[in-house]
Amino acid sequence: MDQRAHRDSEPGHGGDSPHEHEHGHGHGLGHQHGVSADADRRYLTAALALIAGFLAIEVVVGIIAGSLALISDAGHMLTDAGAILMALVAMRLAAREARGAFTYGLQRAEVVSAQVNGFTLLLLAGYFTYEGVSRLVHPVVVDGSWVIATALTGIAVNVVATWLLAKADRTSLNVEGAFQHLLNDLYAFIGTALSGVVVWLTGWNRADAVATLIVAALMAKAGWGLVREAGRIFMEAAPRGMRPDEIGAGTAALDKVVEVHDLHLWEVSSGRPSLSAHILVAPDADCHAVRQAAERLVRTSYGIRHSTLQVDHIPVGVAAGSLAHCGEPHGPAHRR
After folding, report:
1. Which of 196, 184, 332 is nearest to 261 (CA)?
2. Phi, psi at residue 151, to the nearest 5°?
3. What is the pLDDT of residues 141-177, one digit of tens each?
């Protein structure tokens, strides 16, 4: 007996009905948050309005005060606005239904958005590092009072914007990317305010350059984190915190399972893990029941709601892994 089940185990997509076809396909991999998706968009839109409004003011004040720290903060805020805008666009794209050649829909739009955000931060970090070092060597006169006032206002704006995004769904790499932009910008404004105090009280203009370098370091750290996490998804690495060997061993320990191989674990987009595997079972096993048990295991224990499992009987007297029609297993095989 040969039973192949290729299905999405999302609730409401076939469940464990005994009447489903051997090659049934279940879809429905859109945004998992229903009504909260609209709430996420409202939070991001409100944060975008705050950031965009203050950005224009900060550029003008930065030029008047001659503060590179303020202008670098403004550059950071520009990437904040871009990150939020891309997050909003990516959320709409990801919510579209799968159709045609895009069998997963456009869910990876959010990963592309996060990758662009990360590279933008890295490029800006490089530019402001260069400018900051230049001003350490050749300091420019800075009006500390303007810097303090603008930075304190920026702190207030970023606190509100960060709070709005903290209420959104941060399991999404897309939303988390925008949140990290704002959080780093908040830290940057605190550093800029301190530099303004130093310049105002002591006249040491190089404090502005030091603050700029701190902002650049924060940009680089956040940017690299986004690029690295988005890269893991593009390379289809196992989600963080999930160990394929552990899942394979757990599945192999199920009743009547002889061997599990060709196990692959990846993310279509952040927070949406997927798994596929070939399971060999004893000759007297109920393939359908084993598949249900395996799906239940990976769903309840690991949060994997989309699984593609092929279940085959192993002929009597044939050793596990030696079935000619199964081909050569790829990767480690997990046996009872």
Report:
1. 332
2. -65, -40
3. 888 888 888 889 889 988 998 888 888 877 676 677 7
Which CA distances in Å does 169 have to 184, 219, 311? 19, 22, 36
Q: From CA 160, how far away is CA 148, in angstroms rounded?
A: 19
Q: Which residues of 43-61 are buried (b: 16+ CB within 10 A; e: fewer)?
A: bbeebbebbeebbeebbeb
Q: 167-199: string of b/e by CB count within 10 Å (b at 16+)?
A: ebbbebbbbbbbbbbbbbbbebbbbbbbbbbbb
Distance, CA of 95 to CA of 159 (rounded, Å): 29
Shortest CA distance to 144 belongs to which of 65, 68, 72, 209? 65
Phi, psi of 9 (to 5 degrees): -90, 25
The per-residue pLDDT for range 165-175, each reduced to its tens digit, is 888 877 676 67
Q: pTM of the full predicted structure?
A: 0.68
Nearest Cα residue to 265 out of 312, 326, 308, 231:
308
Rounded Cα distance between 179 and 168, Å, is: 9
Q: Which tokens is 265 given?
A: 């674990």
